[in-house]
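Subject: sequence -> structure tokens, single chain

Hey, anyone have a minute? Need the predicted structure for the following. Not urgent.
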Amino acid sequence: MKILLLTKKNFWCDEVKNFLLTHFEEHNIKIYSSNEKYKKIPEEILKEEGDLLISFLSPWIIPATLLKKFELAINFHPGPPEYPGTGCYNFALYEEAKEYGVTCHFITEKVDAGPIIKVIRFPILQTETVKSLRNKALSYLLVLFFDIMSKIINGEKLVPSGEQWKRKAFTRKDLEELCRITPNMTKDEVIKRIKATYYPDMPGAYVELFGKRFYYKCEQ
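Reply:
Had a minute. Here:
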């Protein structure tokens, strides 16, 4: 089986790489990883072809031209069907969701819209932060990856579970709008947006003055 993995560079993604290298022939595995978001997919990736394309936190949107070169293409999304697209952790916290989850689905040209294979759900704690929810979700996503890949190794056919996406995928623009703080917002709304977008050492909630953005920094 020829496998293409598109992923990031972090602990969870390293575990995914190690799993593939343990259970499949190394010469049949191609891995591309990057932490740069919103970049055009490299031309060298578009030349790949094979049996299985795996997107695990891929920073690239996968075009139809590449999907056509693989018999099976699956994505591991770090959010449940209620939160497709960018900023899934942020919108779940902003909407004060009681439950979260991770999703494996078939990849289609439209982002986070393909038939859902499996979802693992878990509760969101009142004390949850973006960082804690992210770390928890990525741990569950790794478990989901192991489960789905075990089925593939055992020759089981992946089929849609019947679960449906609940809305259109959130975009980068949607997330930027969630981060925006304006003078007409109530104190509760400002606090809510800060909680939903704050992540250490990363841009989050901001105010804009004279064309410049000023970002919130948590006091220690």
